[in-house]
Structures are given as structure tokens and as C-alpha cells.
Design a protein that fits this description.
The chain has 118 residues and is an alpha/beta fold. Helix 3 links the parallel strand 3 and strand 4. The chain is globular and about 35 Å long.
Amino acid sequence: QPTYRLAVLTKGDLIDQRNKLRRSGLEPFFDHVSIVADKTEDEYRQLCKDMDIKPEELLMVGNSFKSDIEPALAIGAYAAYIPFHVTWAHEHTETYDHERLVTLSRFSELCYLLNGHV
């Protein structure tokens, strides 16, 4: 099975987001954590640079099409969109099909995707 390096790219207050990640108990699973004011194409490019990968080696998994998916696709990354039934009004945008995009109905489907079954 292939192995993957995991990163968090999240937007918000640095201290608040860092505390949320620590409280979750998931922090040790991530190779890189980046907390930004806004998720832009430049932030995604910086993430690739920080992880020493090309954009086409990045799979962004997120529930906001506007801030997670669109900027990732724009730089040439892959994206897995997992819509959430409640979305902040600022994050609403039209979705679209893309050759590097897959839409999943729940997070558990990500394992199948990463193992080549989706």
C-alpha cells in the first residue's frame, strides 16, 4: 500500500485553530500544519513548497468548494470534495465537474479513493 504524508491547511485565528487541533488529538498524525488568514492559490502553492511536492502530487480534501477545492484545482492539484449539510453562507458557491475532482458522500470513502477503488 502506498504511504501518504498528511498536512493540515486551515484558515482562522492561529491560536484558536492550533488549540482545536491539539484538543482533537490528531496533531501527531500530520507532517505539516499551516494556519492561514485565507485559503488562496498562493497559500496552496506555499503548502506545496513547504512539503517539497508539486501541485499535481497534492490531494486536497475539504468540505468547502470555495476555499478548499477551487484554489487547489486552480494550481493543478487534485481535490476530494465532501459536502457538509451545513455550510457557512460565505462559503457557498457553485460546484462544477473537473477531471481532478471527485465528490465523496462521507469521509470514510477517502480510504477507498486512496487505495484506487473510487
